[in-house]
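Hi there, hope your week has been kind to you so far. It would help a lot if you went through both lines with me. No rush at all, and the record is pasted right below:

***
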Amino acid sequence: MALELNGTTGVSLVQDGVVTAADLASGAITSAALPSGSVVAVRTYTNNTRTVLSDSSNTNYWTVTDAKTFGTETKIVVLAHIGAYGDYSGNLGNYISYDGTRSYSLDFTYTGQNQSHTASGQATFTGLSSGNKTLQIGWQTDNNNASDKPFKIFNPNSTEDNRQVQKVSHLTVFEVVV
């Protein structure tokens, strides 16, 4: 389905072939008018707070509130890029959670060394209404061992190694037409 911008479809007349911000006024084009796969919103979150992770069998170490714009006609795709330092327990269920649903898709390479790491992952969530949703990054062990964690430091800095600059972690949330 092609999207036509001609002044009769809910947007003002496009002149000189240029679409301006006024042409795309809030609500002028709905997600229903867009083809499947269209990205209708992108939100980013950053965190540069150095945090020493505590031992636990189940912990969220980063929580944000994400405002989902559209309803069930869109899905959420989350990309996570997490700065980490120092191996600890190795195999754990590292997850991205959105509105209470966990996707164990966040991973990093365990080396057994006290070095910087990047944990990264992607998760897709469907069937959600619009509104504020809780987005969390964390881990869970399958054996309920309370003395586990994936790595020692979230967002390491020169405290770990004087050559290290402050790491910044990123979450990017895409809202995509189903």
